[in-house]
Amino acid sequence: MAAYGLYSHIQSNRRRSVALLIALFFLVYVLIYAGALTAEALSIDADLDTLMQRAWSDLVSAAPLATLGTALWIVIAYFFHQSIIDALTGGRDVSRADAPRLYNLLENLCISRGISMPKLKLMESDALNAFATGMSQKQYAITVTSGLLDRLDDAEVESVLGHELTHIRNGDVRMMVIAVIIAGAISFFAELFFRLWFYNGFSFRGGRSDDRRGGGAGLAIVIAIALIVVAYVLSFIIRLALSRSREFLADAGSVELTKNPDAMISALRKIEGRGELPGATSAVMEMCLDNPREGFGELFDTHPSVERRVAALVKFAGGHDPGPIALPPPGREDEQASTEAEPSDGKQAPTEGPWGSPAGDGAGESNDGTPLPPSRPSAPADNADSGPWGPHRG
Question: Could you list the active site residues?
Answer without folding.
Answer: 164
